[in-house]
Write a structure and sequence with these properties.
The protein is built from six helices and nine strands; from the N terminus they run H-H-H-H-H-E-E-E-E-E-E-E-E-E-H. By secondary structure, the protein is an alpha+beta fold. It folds into two domains: 69 residues, Orthogonal Bundle (434 Repressor (Amino-terminal Domain)), CATH 1.10.260; 108 residues, Jelly Rolls. The termini are far apart.
């Protein structure tokens, strides 16, 4: 085994642990979704079990990340991000950061209302969570409901709000809306995982 391969394999365990904790998943929950025993997962994370494709593939599927994110296939120091789209609640989300435990940045693409003559669609049911959220409309028009208030944001407008206030967004126009979102772990969990564990 080459020194480079040894270094790559040694980094897999800490990367698996950091990703699992970033997503707020316990070993028991991951074992249930991957059908890999808790003891095997624990040994993988601590480096006492050598990672294999048979073990890493179900873990990558459970976390909805590309396999190369688990093995660090990107060259060290390479700043480029290769976003893999996530489909959730009718929107497409493109992750733009790799920062486990820190603020997460996503580009959200919301399809247009299929029936513009019926007026803007009512946003999905409002929800709330700890933290703050910041969003910037890149293109199109966005409807933001924040408690009892209703706002329409055009391209170039931004909003920041306390996410303990119930909130939801929807497309307010007849064309695709593109939004830049910045939020913390609780926000990522609410928007991308709380309403289901698999892509729509």
């Amino acid at each position: 085994m080459t020194e480079e391969l040894q270094t790559t394999l040694a980094a897999v365990g800490p990367r698996l642990r950091a990703l699992r904790k970033h997503r707020g998943v316990t070993l028991e929950q991951l074992a249930d979704s991957t059908r890999i025993s808790v003891s095997t997962l624990s040994r993988l994370e601590s480096g006492r079990r050598r990672p294999t494709l048979e073990l890493l593939l179900p873990i990558a599927r459970a976390h909805r990340v590309p396999l190369d994110e688990l093995v660090g296939a990107t060259a060290p120091g390479d700043p480029r991000i290769y976003p893999r789209p996530i489909q959730r609640n009718g929107s497409t989300w493109l992750p733009l950061t790799r920062n486990p435990g820190g603020p997460a940045v996503f580009k959200q693409i919301i399809p247009p209302n299929p029936d513009p003559s019926a007026g803007p669609r009512r946003p999905a049911e409002q929800g709330s969570h700890e933290g703050h959220e910041w969003l910037y409309v890149i293109a199109g028009r966005l409807r933001l409901t924040l408690g009892d208030n209703d706002f329409t944001l055009a391209a170039g407008e931004a909003a920041e709000f306390d996410t303990r206030i119930a909130h939801a967004v929807s497309n307010a126009g007849s064309t695709q809306a593109e939004v830049l979102n910045i939020f913390g772990l609780q926000g990522e969990r609410f928007h991308l995982r709380a309403r289901g564990t698999t892509p729509d």
